Amino acid sequence: MKSIAEFLEELSQSNDVLEIVVFFHANQFAMDTALNIARWLKKDFTQIEGYLAHLFSLGVLEKMGEGSSAIFSYTQDIEKIKVLDRFIKLMREKGRR
Questions:
Q1: pLDDT tens across 7-42, in order?
Q2: DSSP string spanning the chain?
């Protein structure tokens, strides 16, 4: 199991990953496919698809289904949401997002 510091370090390695986390944190009930999430974020689908899979492996996102029809949504883990909320606020204070 990763420490909180290791978990947050992984999230902060890519601005695109951070953008996805911030999107889902701001829209906690959003549920969509990788293709549509890429459209919402105006990003390349192939990159976003990999980032979504990574965020799913970290437990930031939940995934229902497989392949191109898989639906991604924000975690329902309250403790993880609290950590992410504090992290996003700190990032905004530092001017990163």
A1: 888 877 788 999 999 999 999 999 999 999 999 999
A2: ---HHHHHHHHTT-HHHHHHHHHHHHTTT-EE-HHHHHHHHT--HHHHHHHHHHHHHHTSEEEESSGGG-EEEE---HHHHHHHHHHHHHHHHTT--
